[in-house]
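Below is a filled-in request sheet from our internal design queue. Each sheet records the structural input a requester submitted and the sequence that came back. We keep these sheets so that new team members can see what a complete request looks like end to end.

REQUESTER: design group, bay 2
PRIORITY: normal
MODE: inverse folding
CHAIN LENGTH: 394
BACKBONE (tokenized):
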């Protein structure tokens, strides 16, 4: 027996400190993964679509290895320096997947959400958030443990406990802060799928491994059973008629937890129900600057949604424009108390279903890659005179 590919990936449990480490070992991992992927890609392409002209052309335009089909073009992380990008660069990234000269692979008639929901394994490291929060995918995802010292994950059957390592680190830190503030940690709801992408139900974002829902409901003192994680009802923090927050549920400690999330430098936005934003605007805070990142949105009365900023290791992650710098307690909040947000636009055209071909090219490639387990599979080397040559280990 000989190992084709060394298992270079640490367990997801070690993800908390993975960012610096990933930057150090990324080139080697990329080479390993590239060969594994190239081999598997050949098998997948051959089996699934045959030698179509389109696939062949794409292989020519994107192939990193001579004679091999393409692997997702995960660009290396910048070695150092602040993240700022130019307007042109932002526009280029926005056009991800529509670069002239690239040929889309054959269109699969199934929807993108069906395809991404069906893939249960992540690709190998390094982790990269790819594309937009609402139209993207995630390479090298790591899985949040179902249970930690200060958190419990909910709805495990959905398979949405995957994220970029920075998301897991953030959750771990927020959970510890919750415990330090007197709460019994946090309940963690949906994150992303194993390769990100659109979901069958529930979210339009959460696609690049940087979004996480944190329940407002208190974490029970005893470890939840699997069944309880599936069936514990969502619990609103609004009052009975939905006219305001219920102060017995949206307590100052819970508000402080939302502040903790929004004040975290890794965080771009926190979405909450307008009544929650209004309640937080009315509170006295020593520093109100975090409030600019607390944004009112539909729903979000039984959880708050934390969106992390694009991490430095993911140059193809498309950032959102930063929120206005003011506290958002004026006109931006008042808008949510007008009919406008609740009145459908009669001129709005229904969106066509999101098919795989409308996903960024790198996400389409990611879908076809082997998962981490396959990439590191141990392959037998037959004995005898005609021993096949496996891909060179690197
Ligand atoms: Zn969410």
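RETURNED SEQUENCE:
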């Amino acid at each position: 027996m000989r190992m084709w590919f060394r298992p270079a990936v640490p367990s997801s449990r070690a993800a908390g400190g993975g960012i610096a480490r990933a930057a150090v070992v990324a080139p080697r991992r990329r080479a390993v993964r590239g060969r594994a992927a190239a081999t598997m890609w050949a098998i997948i392409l051959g089996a699934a679509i045959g030698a179509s002209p389109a696939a062949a052309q794409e292989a020519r335009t994107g192939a990193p290895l001579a004679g091999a089909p393409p692997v997702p073009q995960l660009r290396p992380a910048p070695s150092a320096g602040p993240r700022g990008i130019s307007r042109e660069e932002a526009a280029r990234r926005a056009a991800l997947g529509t670069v002239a000269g690239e040929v889309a692979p054959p269109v699969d008639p199934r929807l993108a959400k069906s395809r991404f929901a069906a893939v249960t394994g992540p690709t190998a490291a390094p982790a990269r958030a790819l594309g937009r929060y609402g139209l993207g995918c995630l390479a090298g995802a790591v899985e949040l443990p179902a249970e930690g010292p200060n958190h419990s994950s909910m709805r495990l059957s959905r398979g949405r406990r995957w994220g970029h390592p920075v998301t897991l680190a953030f959750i771990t830190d927020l959970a510890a802060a919750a415990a330090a503030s007197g709460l019994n940690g946090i309940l963690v709801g949906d994150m992303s799928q194993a390769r990100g992408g659109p979901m069958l139900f529930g979210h339009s974002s959460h696609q690049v491994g940087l979004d996480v829902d944190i329940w407002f409901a208190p974490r029970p003192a005893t470890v939840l059973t699997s069944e309880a994680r599936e069936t514990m009802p969502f619990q609103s923090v609004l009052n009975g008629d939905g006219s305001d927050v219920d102060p017995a549920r949206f307590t100052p400690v819970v508000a402080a937890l939302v502040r903790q999330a929004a004040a975290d430098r890794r965080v771009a936005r926190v979405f909450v129900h307008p009544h929650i934003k209004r309640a937080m605007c009315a509170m006295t805070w020593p520093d109100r600057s975090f409030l600019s990142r607390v944004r009112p949105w539909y729903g979000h009365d039984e959880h708050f949604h934390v969106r992390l900023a694009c991490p430095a290791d993911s140059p193809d992650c498309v950032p959102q424009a930063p929120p206005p710098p003011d506290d958002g307690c004026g006109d931006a909040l008042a808008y949510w108390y007008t009919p406008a947000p609740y009145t459908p636009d009669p001129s709005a055209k229904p969106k066509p279903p999101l098919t795989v071909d409308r996903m960024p090219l790198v996400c389409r490639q990611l879908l076809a890659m082997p998962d981490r387990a396959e990439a590191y599979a141990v392959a037998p080397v037959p004995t005898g005179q005609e021993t096949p040559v496996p891909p060179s280990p690197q």
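SHEET NOTES:
- The CA atoms of residues 336 and 343 lie 11 Å apart.
- Residues 2-13+20-75+90-127+362-379 form one domain.
FILED BY: M.R.
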